[in-house]
Amino acid sequence: MRKLLAVVWIFIFLSCAKTYDPLTGKHVYTLLPEEKEIELGKLYVPLAIDQNDGRYPDYFVQEYVKNIGEKIVNVVPRKLPYEFYVVNSPEVNAFALPGGKIFVNIGLLYVLENESQLAGVLGHELGHVNARHHARFLEKQFGLSILLNVLAIVLSGSKNADLYIQFGKIGAQLLTLKYSRDQEREADRLGVRFSYEAGYDPRGLLETFLIFKKLGDIKAPEWLLTHPLPENRYKEVKKLISKYDLNDKHLIKDTEEFHKIKEKILKYKKSYELLKKAKKRISERKYKEALVLLSKSLEIFPENNASLTYRAVVYAVRRKFLKAYKDSSKAAEIDPMFFKPHLISGIALNRLKRYDESISYLQKAKELIPSFPDTYYFLGLNYEALRKYKEAIENYETALKLSDGNRGWEKDAKRRLLRLKNLIYY
User: Pick from 198, 200, 199, 189: which is nearest to 238 by CA?
Assistant: First the structure.
């Protein structure tokens, strides 16, 4: 047993790469090289966008948050290809992916009161990235070989369903990652430091804690579910901030631009409130009511790509496939990184017997999120209709391997697969 453990430790040591950590100024050993961490983060951006109902469809809102983020990025030690996204989710939350991908929910912008608060939240999320909290989680949970295999298979466009399943598992855990108290302390410390060095009043982060605490009396914000906020954390950050020069007149507390952006998004808040109600009606299969709510939502904000997508879902359920395609294709055009409208466009076009066009949308959907089984089932239907039986077989097989057995098309896929195999081989 001792010999076996020795071999294991030697293997782990040899697998580690020695790299310079700009945060600590020391050389450290890591399983996951920085370039692979960046690739993994990029790989999961479409999944994060999809689970939060697409990117917020306003260029100026996106650019505003990006500009605040980039001010802070200028002072962080890790030089990564940082990207900032505002997404449509009404939940009060912000989160990060490995390699510097930072997400801000529109729901968070609704409740923040000044620019230094936004800078504090962004600084905190950049703290997690600079401390490599996500990368350490991946190293510990999955190991280097699985991570590299998933990267290689997905990026090469291979049809290895087992690794697509692994891709989905990694994504599910990344997007619900809960940090330890020590990690939160470290991110707080770095967030305060980064926002201050970027020229912001560091008390903005403390103020967000108070906002979240007040909201938590009604319903705990999503941010608190993944970033626990015990009473001593507020006191620790307050003590930490007291060490900085808070009398510096150049520290940014607030800006006119923040309030212009806030006014801009609040103008369309009702559209998202109606969307939230419509999604509940869809879950209850009250499609007629959902359709009314979604149409009202789009009257208020015609570019609401999330409402367009869910109205397309309702149209597809009611077999109005041309209307479903018109809404979903518009949503896909507004946000080319949004998976759902590409999938719905592909399904609607399949039902309209526009098979080549359907394949185009479904291939894009597969590139965005390669682990979703329905994509492969409908690709199989398209290829079968076009008499491309080998491609149809490959897609039906992948669909069945990825399926949880509750998609509703499994029996049909098995029947078609058996018939096509008999047709080809006999």
Answer: 189
SS3 60: helix
- Answer yes or no: is pLDDT of 13 > 80: no
Q: Which of 370, 424, 381, 387 is nearest to 167 (CA)?
A: 370
d(CA 351, CA 58): 32
Model confidence pLDDT, tens digit, residues 53-89: 999 999 999 999 999 999 999 999 999 999 999 999 9
Asked if 423 and 389 touch (Cβ cutoff 8 Å), the reply is yes
The CATH 1.25.40.10 portion of the chain extends over 269-425
Cα–Cα distance measured from residue 426 to residue 277, given in angstroms and rounded to the nearest whole number: 53
Distance CA 388, CA 393 (A): 9
Task: Give percent of the chain above pLDDT 90.
Answer: 74
pLDDT of residue 154: 75
The residue among 359, 360, 294, 349 whose CA lies nearest residue 316 is 349
Instruction: Give domain 269-425's CATH architecture.
Output: Alpha Horseshoe (1.25)
Determine the Cα–Cα distance for residues 168 and 150; give it in Å rounded to an integer: 10
Alpha-carbon distance 68 to 214, whole Å?
Answer: 25
Neighbours of 136 (CB within 10 A): 15
Question: What is the DSSP code string of 13-36?
Answer: HHH-EEEEETTTTEEEEESS-HHH
pLDDT of 5 above 60: no
Task: Examine the pLDDT at 1 and tell me if it is beyond 50.
Answer: no
3-class SS at 201?
coil
> Token pair 């930072």 is at which residue?
102
Q: Mean pLDDT over all residues of the chain?
A: 90
pLDDT tops 60 at residue 18: no
The Cα–Cα gap between 139 and 142 comes to: 6
